[in-house]
Amino acid sequence: MAEIAAQGEPEVLPRSSLRTVVAASSAGTTFEWYDFFVFGSLTGVISKTFFTGLPETAGLAAALALFGAGFLFRPLGALVFGRIGDRAGRKGAFLATVLLMGGATVAIGLLPSYTQAGIVGPALLILMRIIQGFALGGEYGGAAIYVAEHAPANGRGAATSWIQTSAAFGLFAALLVILATRLAVGTEAFDAWGWRVPFLVSGLLLAISIWMRLKLSESPEFAKLKAEGNETKAPFKEAFGRWPNLRLVLIALVAIMFAQGAVWYTAFFYVQTFMERFMKAPPETINLLMMSAVAASAPLYVFFGWLSDRVGRKPVMLFGMTLMLVAYFPGFHMLTQTLNPALAEAQARTPVVVIADPADCALQFDPVGKAKFLSACDIAKSTLANAGASYTTEPGVPGRAALVRIGDQTIPSTSAVGLPPDVAKAVKASVENRLKTALAQGGYPEKADPKRMNLWGAFGVLLVFTIAATALYGPIAACLVELFPTRVRYTAMSLPYHIGTGWVGGFVPFTAFAIVAGTGHLYAGLWYPFAFTALSVVVCLFMLPETKGKPLSA
Q: What is the DSSP string of 213-237?
């Protein structure tokens, strides 16, 4: 203790008091992650409830985009609450965030559907998502800093890793409540009204979180700074207007947070979309697999945080990034083999090829539901995208209608351009029926067969993703806190964190789905997280300084 104090560090807390700080901070963060993840895990139901006016693919894309919209506002919340935290204190900032987050989540459970109130329902849903993202933008930085500024220098990785674990607890709780509600009321009732229950449950969690955080006092590091009159008066200018601090912000963003956003949200969110939308796995099976993976992640966050206290933050995080970089494509291919082997067999035995004039084909992605996809090529591709069938394209004869080759069958498509709406609808239905029949004859399953699923194999793939994500995420809080000076720590670390997790990670499900729908290739969407992860590996290797044991007052 004396050595640390001599270096300018405030005296650290006794172990029992430190446990109280960690528990209260982590519990509050768990509840906020629960609120946020309930929405991400229910995008399919939400698309049917609030976007019933859109086609199936467009409705799901809109729900995924709305999930990403919550992340879009996280950097703004990081700036607002970062300024409050650096000027007025850590405690007040993250007490306000939990109030906003919990209130918005309860409100989502009470919103009218599109059928009940028309456009009012989706508009209010968008507003609540914005509030959620804004609040979560101030949450993580406050909780991580609060714990780190109480912890001893040689134990910051282990102590702050509990903040990372709170994401696992929050996601696990969200999946558990969703699964329990679905089993209790049945699938039909759950889709009709039961989906509201997980949102309303957060009201109880909100009350517990507020009670726990009210019992906390200000962090010793900030209290010392304030007693000396050294707290910043202009955190934005000091954090981003001075090159030494701005340089660290940029390094943190590219070297760490690009990968964290890409890896974590692929491992725990896009994989759900992939299994449900393309593998046609039952929702209950997906929930059980994800709950198992999330349960396994909880101790791994703490282990890798502890390991970073021994060997350094940088090597542990680099291991996580590199592992995921290697696992992206083989892992998702393996999920196809384990969850829907009939689909894998059909793709290998009966490839699908669209032969069409490139001028006749549009991008098969429409998040707002305005495009009609009435050309022969568009009708063929949209049918295949909705069926979850991967396909390749070959240029056809200019001016001729598209053909779809499914194994040894060739199915002609038909254009509905310029036809009356009812006639166009009938033409599209005719093409869709012919293609679906041909896909079924080619061995393409309508749904995954539970009897052929290798759930242990699928869990093994998810476990590899989980190890990669936790190795990267476990030491991040300690590393970010140690990178920045106390005066601007809340502001400086929160912004890159939420740009990485919000703008890169939050849009992984939406962007990857868009790439798949646009290219027709089930695995093409993985290039989005792969590119960000690869960039981080290079920058982390050559530019990120090691921070283990660095005095926080330095």
A: HHT----HHHHHHHHTT---S-HHH
CB 236 within 8 A of CB 79: yes
Rounded to whole angstroms, the Cα distance separating 338 from 344 reads 9
Q: Give every CB contact of residue 381 below 8 A, 6+ residues apart in sequence.
A: 354, 361, 364, 373, 391, 520
pLDDT at 539: 96
Hey, what CATH topology would domain 2-340+450-543 get?
Growth Hormone; Chain: A; (1.20.1250)
List pLDDT tens digits, range 154-190: 888 988 888 888 878 887 888 888 889 988 998 889 9
CA torsion 504→510→513→517, rounded to 10°?
Answer: -120
Are 119 and 160 contacting, i.e. CB atoms less than 8 angstroms apart? no
The DSSP 8-state label assigned to residue 405 in this structure reads E
Q: Phi and psi at residue 419, in whole multiples of 5°?
A: -85, 155
* Single-letter residue type at 95: L
| Adjacent-strand bridge partners of 405 | 353, 410
Phi, psi of 355, deg, nearest 5: -105, 110
pLDDT at 540: 96
pLDDT in tens, 15-26: 546 676 777 677
Cα 25 to Cα 30, 31, 36, 97, 147: the distances in Å are 9, 10, 17, 12, 7
Domain edges within the chain: 2-340+450-543, 353-441
Q: Contact at 8 Å (CB) between 184 and 197?
A: no
Q: DSSP per residue over 314-337, as a string?
A: HHHHHHHHHHHHHHHHHHHHHHHH
3-class DSSP state of 393: strand
Q: How many CB atoms lie within 10 A of CB 440?
A: 14
SS3 354: strand
Crossing angle for the helix pair 15-41 and 43-50, to the nearest 10 degrees: 50
The sign of the dihedral angle between the CA atoms of 464, 470, 476, 478 is: negative
Rounded Cα distance, 357 and 175, in Å? 45
Phi and psi (nearest 5°) for 86?
-80, -20
Task: Give the angle 177-182-188 at the CA atoms, nearest 5°.
Answer: 150
The DSSP symbol for 119 reads: T
**CB-facing half-sphere around the CA of 16: CA atoms within 13 A:** 0
* Measured CA distances, 550 to 479, 482, 554 (Å): 10, 6, 7
